[in-house]
Structures are given as structure tokens and as C-alpha cells.
Amino acid sequence: MAARRVRKGSKRRGKANLTPVFIGIGVILVLALIMSSGILKRGGSARDAEPTPNFRIADYRRDGSRFASSGNSYVFEGRIESIETIGTNRIISISLPDHQNTQERLPLLVPGNAHLRVNLTRGDRFLFETTCTTGKTDEGKQVKGVLVVKNVQTR
Amino acid sequence: MKVFFLLPLVLALLPGYSSAQMPSESSSTPTGFDASGSSVKPQQQDPAHQGETPNPQLFGMELPLLDPSTDTVKYNGGMFDVGNNAAVRARFEKYLQQVPDDSTEAKRYQALIKSILKETQKAGRDKNYAVGGSVLIRVGMALYKADKYPGDGGQSGTLASAIVSALDSQRQMLQRIRENQEMEKEMRKLLTEADHWQNENNRRPSGGNSKDGKGGERSGGPGTNLLRIARDVKQSAKLEGSQAANEAANQAAILSSKINYQSVLVSMLMARRFDHVVIGARTYRHVFREGDTKLDLSEDSKAYQLFSGGIGLPPTVNTLDTLASNARRDVDQAIQSVHGMLARNKLGEATQGLIQAVAIGEFMQSVATFPVEARQRIARYWTLRKRALTALNARDYATVEEVAAKMKEMDVDFDDSMLLSYTTGKKRQSDLAIRNARKALQAGKEEEFNKYIQEAGVIWPRNPNLDKGAEMIAKYDEGDSIKEEFQNLYKGGEFRKIARERERFKIVAIDPELAKQYEESITFVMKMDGMLQQIKSVADQDTTMGPCMAYEKMIEWQKEDPRYADDKEMMLAQKDFESRAHDFVQALRDADICEQRAEYGSALSCYYRAQCIYPQSDLAKQGAKRMMNVIVSATYE
Asked: Which residue in A53, A111, B57, B232 has the most C-beta neighbors within 10 A?
């Protein structure tokens, strides 16, 4: 499955001197887009989120901080292998379907304040929109490279 | 008369011998063993005389009495083992080494002595046998002939000279007697003549005038005969005086001659020349014919004490004859008995018999001609016996037993039970002392250890176990350096080296504190080895999870007791498990690295990976839990 990296706020703009054929095609595409958007909304999923391509858990294991550059978001499609609830927070481990090595797990923090519209259950596959970020404990200790779930979509 | 063996060993052996009493080693240790293996203890000294210097004068001038039941000689109240007496032993050994003289001269000599004995015996028995001259001439000539044989030792010549000397003396006596007889005749003649002149004087008238005038001229008158008478009387008195002097000289000569002769006989008896004593005693009556055979011995003389103290018989020439004859008979019987016992392989009894025969009658023909083969057999047995005695005195009990076994092989009747009981007892005593020494050493009691080792050495100096004691001592001496080495190893956690050389380090157990450490080291290594064996076995059974489990166990143990990490065997095993559970170990290590870099998400991912490889991993589970707690405790932008 191909994954594409998507940047927020980037949209194609049409050219002013479009011919009628192109206008027609554009209309059709717009209509198709509107239609597909309506279908996604019906199933409770985000149509605009795509899994981040070329993400390797092994790379994350070796150097998690590298992924924590400010503003870096990652979308993963994966199956929940375990869920650990600590207080109001949850930590889930997911396996990515494109990983041949079945012994790789990616830990994601699902904060208690995250408003998810889906019910996370073990064994189900979801699309996780995450941000790799650095936190700080009350003692001032840094916690680098934690993938915090922002949104989850069913797949 | 059943004799008390006359041991004129007596004087002949050692004139100056003193203190021949057996040396007493201790009251419990026998001084020696006789041929049968029985121990012979020296007689306890009378407590009343303990302060006095014992000087029993074994070959002195008192007759020793042999007790055949114990083979001991009673002498001056002391008991002596004939076989164990140094002087007798030396004499006997010399005798055993001598080769009997079988030469023609020797045989001729023996025949000669035998013929002289026969001659004297015949002369003594036969009442009609001519007493005197002819017998003495034959005996004297034969003795001078025998004197030429070197083995005679000049005894025959001495006896012959004594006889000749006595005869010379008697010839002089006869001469003096004859002179006296001549003088007697002369005296009678003189007295007769004096009587005649006296009668003549009496016949003449007083005044002295004769008619013819011749008488007065012949006799010189009435006083003339008186002078003649006086001369005869004087001459007679002179002769009488000479006669008396001759008689006195004869008495002195006879006494001197007897004393001389008797002295020769007594000295020969002392020298155990019994043949010559018999010859001399029997020719005595031919030399001195007056029938008096009493020995003229001073009561103070040692020779007199020899008779009075030993046998209670009056000192006469006949007594000498009896003593010498009995000794000859006893020695001959002893030699016969020795031959019989040798034929029956009873070497112990044969040796004892021969030693007695030699001690009493060394110069007897039966002893002197004892066959060389028989001597060699007895010499071999004697050498063993001597070795046994030497070994026993040296307390070398192993050698004693070895020699006793050989003696038993040689002598069917040899009873070694008492000997072996004695040696076994002593050996056990010594071993027990060594055991006590070992215990004392283990308890760290050095003084007791020394005491017991010394005791063991005194009881049985050649105890092979004493070498172990010596090793113990050496170990004890080097104990300080070992102790230091042990302490360094213990501090350095090198328990395995301690365990490997546990025997060498055992010595440190003397110190109670080190003993605990020693015990702890050994126990620790044993426990560790047991654990290693167990996890190796599990790792071998399950090649996928097994090494992971083994590695994790080892890490757990090291956390429980850091000393495990320093053990080389543990380290080797750990390396092995690490290579066999590489991914699992790597995941845990990566987790650790990430944790140190505060990359808790990555660390958690590593733990997840470890859990995927080995789901039962406690380390991974605990690590994941720890990471999760940190992650959730943080605040994110």
C-alpha cells in the first residue's frame, strides 16, 4: 500500500485560462470529491488522512528524537496489538501492515484529553494521526520522541 | 649332677666386662626378643638398690647359672639373656663366620687329644695300671706334640710344662731325700765311731800311763779320744741340720709345685679348655702321689669363690675333673641336639642351642668342627634375628614385621604372635597420635599438634603417616602466605579459584572467620555451577526461547548478587547466551540506550520488540511498564 506524505494547507490552484474541457473535467472531479467526502463522513472517517510513507519502526527505535522535529505529524495505519491504560491515558502498541517483521511494535500515546470518535479495541485496524513530540515530566525530565495520537479513523 | 651350666665364658670372654646387664629402654618396651620371638625384659632392679651403680660383673669370678627354660643366665642376682648379650653375640657371630679346620693337622690334633684322654681315663680306672713314670711320659710327649698345632693355643704345652715342672720339682725332692738318707748313714757311722772312742776312753785307767807305752801314744792319753768324739758329734750335728733343711725344702717345693699345677688347671677351666682340664686332673695323681687333691686356694681368691659361690662343692682336683667332664658332655649333647633341630627346620631352637654350646664350649671339638653349611644356615637366621632386634630397638615396626615373616618362613616353629601384637599395638598408637595431631591442626591448636606429632614419632619413628604430618606442618608453615592469597582472592571475588584449589586453601579454615569465607566461597561456586548447569540444559532444550530465558535469568541473578557477574564461567555462559539470543539481547540493550537518551517512546518500542521475541520476558515487561509510566507522566505541547 502506498503512503503519501501530506502537508496541511497545500491545495492546487486552477489556471485562469482553462479550456471548457478542462473545466468540465474539473467540475466532474469536484463533484466526485464532494461525493466521496459525503461517504467518509457517513462512516466516521477522515477522508483527507493518508498513512505516512516510508516510515520504519526500526528507524524510530534507533533514534526517536529525530522524528520529534517540531510540527511533524505522522499517520499510521495499523492494528492494535495491546492497550495499556494508565490513569486517563492509554498507551497502545500497533503493528504496521507494511512491516514484514512481525516483531516490531510502535507505541502510541492516547492522551486522556483526546476526543476520539472511535472506540479503540485490540485487534482492530485504524488510521492514527499522530504527532511526534517531546514532553516534560513534573520533575523537569525530558521525554523525547513520543508519538501522541491526535485523531483516529477507522479503516 | 645336672648342672648349672658352667659358663666360663666367665673370664675368658671379657675380663674387664662390666655392666653387662641388658640396657633397659623403658618398662613397657622389651629389650629384645629371643629366637622364638618372646620378649625378654631386664629384671627390675631392687628398689632398695636403685641408688647404687649396678655392676654385676657378668663374666666375673662367680659361677653363672643357666636357666634353660628362659635361656637366661642368673648372675649376681641379675638375669641376662645369653642370646642378647653383646659379648656373647660378638663371639657367636665370629664363630659363625669361621670355617672349621678340616686339615690333616687338625684331625691329627683331635686324634691326639682323644688318645690322651683315653690314656688318662684308662690310667685312672685301672687299679693295676702303673702309676707314675710311663703314663706321664706318654701323656707329656703327646701333649708336646699337640702343642705344635696352632689351634691348640699353647694349652697342651702349658699343661705339659706344668707336668714337667712338677716332675722336676719332685726329682729334686727325691735327690734331697737321697741326700738325707746318705747323711743319715754318715751320721750313724759318726755316732758309732764316737761311741767306740768313748768306750776306749772308759777302758783306760785314769792317770793314763800304759805299760807298753803305745796306748798312750795312740790315743794320746786319756784326753786324746775326747777330741775325736767331739769332732764326730759336731759332724753329725751338721748332717742333721742339712737333713732338716732338705726336708723343709721338699715341703716347700711340693706345695709350690701343687699350686703351680692347680693354677694351670683352674685357668684352663676358666678358659673353657675342658679337654685339658680333664687330662690335667687325671694325671694329677700320677704327678702328686700322696693322694691329697685339695686345691690350695685362698679363701679370698676369686677361684675359691667360683667354687663356693656357684656349686657348693669343695675345691678339689676331682671337682675340676667333674665340672669339665660335665661341661664336655653338655656341649656335645647340645651340638647333637642342634643337628637334630636343623634337620627338622627348627632354626630358632637350633640357634639357641648352638649359641649356648658356643658360649660354654667354644674350644670343644664338637663345636669347633661344627659343619660350615649348618653354620651358614644358622648365620642367615641369626642375621634376621639381629635385624629384628635392631629394628625393634629402633622402633622400626614395619621392618620388624617384614623380618618376622622371613623368620617364619625359615623356622616352622617360629611364633611371631607376640611380636606382631606388640608391633601392631605400637603402630596403632602412633597412627592415633597422628590422627589427634590432624584434629589439633584443624582446630588451630599448634601446641597440641606439635605434641601429638612428636608422640607419634617417638612411638614409631618410621611411621609412613608421619610424612603426611610433615606435609601438614609444611602446609601449616606456609599457611600465612596461603591465608594472604586466600584473602586477596576472596576480596577480588575470585571464588572459583578458591573452589578450584580448595584443598590447598583448606588450611585457612584454622581461622574461624576465614573458615566461614572459605565455606561461603565453596558453597557459592557450587550453587553457581548448579544454576549454570540448569539454565544451560534449558537453553539447549529450546533453542528459540531457551537462550533468551537463560540470558534473562543470568541478568536477574546478577542483579540479585553482583558477584555472579565477576565469575568467569558465568561470563562465558552469558556471552554464549548473548550470541544465541542476539535479537532479544540487542532489543534490551537498545531499550537501555534509548532510556538513557530519554527517548522513552523508542525504548518502549524496543521492549515491545523484546517481548515479541520472548513473550515471557520479565525484563521486557518491567522495562515497558517503566517506560509507559514515564511517558504518561509527561506533559506534551
From this structure: B232
Domain count, chain A: 1
Q: Which of A62, A87, A135 sits opposite B636 (nearest CB)?
A: A135
Q: How far apart are CA B462 and CA B466, in angstroms?
A: 7
Find chain B residues with C-beta within 8 A of A106's C-beta: 605
Looking only at the bridges linking them, the beta strands covering A142-154 and A125-136 are antiparallel
Residue B605 sits at the chain A interface (C-beta within 8 Å): yes
Q: Which amino acid is at A145?
A: G
CB half-sphere exposure, A155, CA atoms < 13 A? 20
pLDDT (tens digit per residue) in B12-35: 333 333 333 333 333 333 333 343
How would you classify the pairing of strands B32-33 and B65-67?
unpaired
Question: Which residues, 6 or more positions from B532, have their beta carbon under 8 angstroms from its beta carbon?
Answer: B569, B570, B573
In a domain, A83, yes or no: yes
Residue A139 lies in a domain: yes
More confident: B362 or A58: A58
A72 touches chain B (CB under 8 A): no
Tell me if A11 is assigned to some domain: no
How many Cβ atoms from other residues are within 10 Å of residue B227's Cβ? 11
Q: What is the pLDDT of residues A10-45, one digit of tens each?
A: 444 445 565 777 777 766 776 666 555 444 443 344
The CATH code of the domain that includes A115 is 2.40.50.140
Let me know if residue A108 belongs to a domain.
yes
Query: By residue range, what is the domain housing residue A74?
Result: 57-154
ipTM of the complex, rounded to two decimals: 0.73
pLDDT value of residue A127: 92
Q: Chain A partners of B636 at a C-beta cutoff of 8 Å?
A: 109, 111, 133-135, 143, 146, 148
Residue B53 has pLDDT above 80, yes or no: no
pTM flag (> 0.80): no
User: Bigger pLDDT: A69 or B597?
Assistant: B597
User: Which residues in chain B have Cβ-Cβ distances shorter than 8 Å to A61?
Assistant: 590, 594, 602, 605-606, 609
